[in-house]
Write a structure and sequence with these properties.
Chain A: Keywords: Electron transport, Transport. Chain A: One of its GO terms (cellular component) is cytosol. Chain A: Its cofactor is FAD. The complex is a heterodimer of chains A (259) and B (382). In chain A, a hairpin with a 2-residue loop joins strand 7 and strand 8. Chain A is 27% helix and 24% strand. Chain A has seven helices and eleven strands. Chain A is of the alpha/beta class and 259 residues long. Chain A has a single domain, classed as 3-Layer(aba) Sandwich (Rossmann fold). The model of chain B has no long low-confidence stretch (mean pLDDT 94). Chain B contains ten helices and ten strands. The radius of gyration of chain B is 21 Å and the shape is globular. Chain B folds into three domains: 114 residues, Acyl-CoA dehydrogenase/oxidase, N-terminal domain (Butyryl-Coa Dehydrogenase, subunit A, domain 1), CATH 1.10.540.10; 111 residues, Butyryl-CoA Dehydrogenase, subunit A, domain 2 (Beta Barrel); 144 residues, Butyryl-CoA Dehydrogenase, subunit A, domain 3. With 382 residues, chain B is an alpha+beta fold. The two termini of chain B are 30 Å apart. In chain B, the strands form three sheets. Chain B has a four-stranded mixed β-sheet. The chains are: A alpha/beta (259), B alpha+beta (382). Chains A and B meet through helix 2 and helix 5 of A and helix 1 of B.
Chain lengths: 259, 382
């Protein structure tokens, strides 16, 4: 089975992240950039499928030059090859445009299955898998906590707030995963050394037959019109137990929808 | 003259660092408190190839070198020393003697499992009557037909009593050399061999999540082919292993020294006293600056020793200096880090308390500080 895994480089969610003050895009220059965490689960799932059934795993990344670092790291986990779409005109693209670039890139590859994280920790838009599946004309199996491949059919357990749904599709599909699906491996030294020699194909918009004026911040369908830093954390509610403390705690949890 | 890591070495370091922070740090305190060997962590260390780092892919290793192992040890010890010493002993003392001196059959039989971390092995040198004076070995092995019969006691043997321990390579007197000195050989004793008894886990001051035991051999019989390396070369072989091991212990000590800096910086930015974060006070800043200085200098010392070793140059003195300086730096940094943490530093739940307890053994194991000074002095012709 030929699997393509979408990998996005994002600013480290464990560090301070900022938006640029002029156009409200993510300031990637000042941040320490890493593989989007959820994508590591997609890579792991792809590798497990390959280990069980054979096949090939290719990483597909749309991002600036600096994303090479994340591509190498992804490859050191075990995938066979990578495709890096890099073009200055793409900067600031929204999800609609990015999904078009991804679909065009997938058009240059042979694939049976596309795996990706259910969200990226920077934009958290969560719609790329759906948009991409629509553009590719294949089913979207999104939000998986479990994926089973049986011959031509792909079945997922879709994680929901209440439990899970079983969703099945046959043939080609786009599957997005949550971090409940597996435990990603850490790159071994052998994997790190091997990653050096793995092919990384670089593609531009021209290579994909896409016009520069269809992508980028200026041509985006959506725009961030304003942004404000998260307000400082408010003081919490103090419950004094005068015999009713337990009830008040449960009420609080219920209001916050924890129970 | 280049002391920068290659891209691959940096990537390995980063990979182990993430593993240590994400997998080891959250749970190791509990293992430590209960004195339990962290089987789950060791399994995952095996899966990421750490136990196979310096071995070739032909025996199931990662195709790295001894320096790669040192980098991994440093990053693990930055978070916890019990798992670091488990790896260090597993590779340097468990697998390395077989890799270097074993027969093809021994390598084929044992190395792949050791490289994957599915099994670990131990080296039994130290005896109740002596550590540094390895020549004073009391354990005896007598060849009876095609069987070695071993009698004696070994103590402080790391990795020797876990559920996944495959064997222990023990040094034993196998005869007398010309001039009356004992002939010492190394013999592989599989776990579970009748007559080989593993004692209970010691109650240790530090390294509490690592496995350390006393071993006894009473008429323990193993086949003659279990000899590791040449008969009568057991001690000489071991000295080479020990020289390398010093670089690894230095790396581990640097990790602990750096971990003390990490924890102290974090705490100094959080803790408020007299209206300011304690990190705003020079008394604390200077302490931490000195700690960073020690960790950095010790790191350069072990990088240098490892570079010489890998280049095939003499490295005995450099290894001794790296081990001596790094272990003393670790002890000093751990003491200072505990001091910076005040009362909390004396509470076992704080990582620096664990580091303080783990640091002292570094001045003792793999050659005491006194032995290291002796080696340096000898090299200077004294």
């Amino acid at each position: 089975m030929k699997i393509v895994v979408l990998v996005k480089q994002v600013p480290d969610s464990g560090a301070e992240r900022t938006l640029k003050s002029d156009d409200f895009t993510v300031d990637r220059g000042s941040a320490s950039n890493v593989i989007n965490e959820m994508d590591e689960y997609a890579i792991e799932e792809a590798l497990r499928i390959k280990e069980a059934q054979g096949g090939e795993v290719t990483i597909l990344t749309v991002g600036p030059d600096g994303a090479t670092e994340s591509i190498r790291k992804a490859l050191s986990m075990g995938p066979d090859a990578a495709v890096h779409v890099v073009d200055g005109a793409i900067a600031g693209s929204d999800a609609v445009q990015t999904s078009a670039v991804l679909a065009a890139a997938l058009g240059t590859l042979e694939w049976d299955l596309v795996l990706c994280g259910a969200e990226a920790t920077d934009g958290r838009v969560q719609v790329i898998p759906h948009m991409l599946a629509e553009r590719l004309g294949v089913p979207a199996l999104t939000g998986a906590r479990k994926l089973t491949i049986d011959g031509d059919s792909r079945t997922i357990e879709r994680q929901t707030d209440e439990g899970y749904e079983v969703v099945r599709a046959d043939g080609k599909a786009v599957v997005s995963v949550w971090d409940t699906i597996n435990e990603p491996r850490y790159p071994s030294f052998k994997g790190i050394m091997a990653a050096k020699k793995k092919p990384v194909t670089t593609l531009s918009l021209a290579d994909l037959g896409l016009a520069p004026d269809t992508v980028g911040l200026a041509n985006a369908y959506s725009a961030v019109v304003s942004a404000a830093p998260r307000p400082a954390r408010q003081a919490g509610t103090r419950v004094t137990d005068e015999g009713e403390g337990g009830v008040q705690l449960v009420e609080f949890l219920a209001v916050e929808k924890f129970v | 003259m280049e002391f920068r890591l290659t891209e691959e070495q940096s990537a390995l370091r980063e990979s182990v660092r993430e593993f240590a922070t994400e997998v080891v740090a959250p749970v190791i305190g509990d293992h430590y408190e209960r004195g339990e060997f962290p089987y789950g962590i060791v399994k995952r260390m095996g899966e990421m190839g750490l136990f196979g780092l310096p071995f070739g892919e032909d025996v199931g290793g990662m195709g790295g070198d001894y320096f790669a192992l040192c980098l991994a040890l440093e990053e693990l010890a930055r978070v916890d020393s019990s798992v670091a010493i488990t790896l260090e002993a597993g590779v340097s003392l468990g697998a390395m003697p077989i890799h270097r001196f074993g027969t093809d059959a021994q390598k084929k039989r044992y190395l792949p499992r050791l490289c994957r971390g599915e099994a670990i092995a131990a080296f039994g040198l130290t005896e109740p009557g002596g550590g540094s004076d390895a020549g004073a070995t009391k354990t005896r092995a007598v060849l009876d037909g095609d069987t070695w019969v071993i009698n004696g006691t070994k103590c402080f043997i790391t990795n020797s009593g876990t559920d996944i321990t495959d064997f222990v390579t023990v040094t034993a007197v196998t005869g007398t050399r010309e001039g009356g000195k004992p002939e010492i050989s190394a013999i592989l004793v599989p776990a579970g061999t009748p007559g080989f008894t593993v004692g209970p886990e010691y109650s240790k001051v530090g390294w509490c999540a690592s496995d350390t035991r006393e071993l006894s051999f009473v008429d323990c019989r193993v086949p003659a082919e279990n000899l590791v390396g040449e008969r009568g070369r057991g001690y000489a072989q071991f000295l080479r292993i020990l020289d390398e091991g010093r670089i690894a212990i230095a790396a581990l000590a640097v990790g602990l020294a750096q971990g003390c800096v990490d924890e102290s910086v974090k705490y100094a930015k959080q803790r408020v006293a007299f209206g300011h974060h304690i990190g705003d006070y020079q008394a604390i800043q200077f302490k931490i600056a000195d700690m960073e200085l020690r960790a950095h200098t010790a790191r350069l010392a072990y990088y240098d020793a490892a570079a010489r070793m890998l280049a095939g140059e003499p490295f005995k003195k450099q290894a001794a200096m790296a081990k001596l300086y790094a272990s003393e730096s670790a002890v000093t940094n751990a003491r200072e880090a505990t001091q910076i943490h005040g009362g909390y530093g004396f509470m076992n739940e704080f990582p620096v308390a664990r580091m303080w307890r783990d640091s002292k053994i570094l001045e003792i194991g793999e050659g005491t500080s006194e032995v290291q000074r002796l080696l340096i002095a000898r090299d200077l012709g004294l």
